[in-house]
Model the fold of this input.
Amino acid sequence: MHTHTPVLLEETLELLAPKPGECALDCTLGLGGHSEAILRLTSPSGQLVGLDADTENLAAATKRLEQFGSRVHVLHANFRELPECLPLEYQTFDLILADLGLSSPHIDTAERGFTFRSDSDLDMRFDQTRGMTAAMLIASTDRITLRDIFNTYGEVPAAHRLTDALIDRRTTKPVRRSSDLVDVTKGVYGYKAHDHLPQIFQALRIAVNDEMVVLESLLSEAPKLLKSGGRFAVISYHSLEDRLVKQAMKRLATDEKDPITGAVSKKADFEILTAKPIVPGKKEVTDNPRSRSAHLRAIRFLEGYTPLP
Ligand SMILES: C[S@@+](CC[C@H](N)C(=O)[O-])C[C@H]1O[C@@H](n2cnc3c(N)ncnc32)[C@H](O)[C@@H]1O
Done:
């Protein structure tokens, strides 16, 4: 049976502060660890809508959360489909969580193709029911776009050399399996290949799942779904994501100013709850090394503010 240890669980609960009867949206249900804890704290009547792009995780979470009966509503959806994917009766929430990226079963299940540590088809999709796999992306993407993917999403050194090697290789034989990609990488970087494989696989995964674009969409839509006083928390796992989260939250919490006088023309609707990102302590990183890059940020939708005239 697969497991996934929820990251920064206590800290997330402290910021989201679930109360009995509140309504929650978990945009990345995973195996339901955070959701289970939220449901306990919102009992006896609090509701939770949980979505995930991955049908296998969704099935596991559904089973885990069965104990909460009709308080839970599970959806197979990408959070880029918010708010349209929501059931009509759930349009606003007291708390919203997005715990981005991979879950442990993605890494531990070789056939998903997320890791260079085992050989399998290069898939890397969270949602295996639709979209292009990493192998399809390598086969069909033009040279400049492919190089940009490695540069931007992985900061892969000499990304042009890796791109050229992949394009050379695909003219004769497809790059279909993780071992094919590892071979090409070794051909380019020699004994240093292992230093670069994590970034190369990360870059492809981000591109396959369009992770930066869907995150932008989430950061623009989720705050609109908060009830007055509602809290929105995001856990990200690499600096590109954290930068987007930080900027979006800062924008929401900044007063609008008259461009000529500089006077505040509209007070911000949100307050930042995390002056600095919250990161896991030593003990959590030791117990769960996969938490090591986590950054948690949160905002609150201010209640009862009065816009300035
Ligand atoms: C880090 S895990 C969440 C773990 C969860 N908090 C728990 O405690 O079990 C991230 C989950 O988000 C899902 N996911 C990633 N991107 C998504 C997206 N754009 N829309 C919906 N789900 C997504 C993944 O399939 C994965 O199950």
Summary: The chain is about 40% helix and 15% strand.
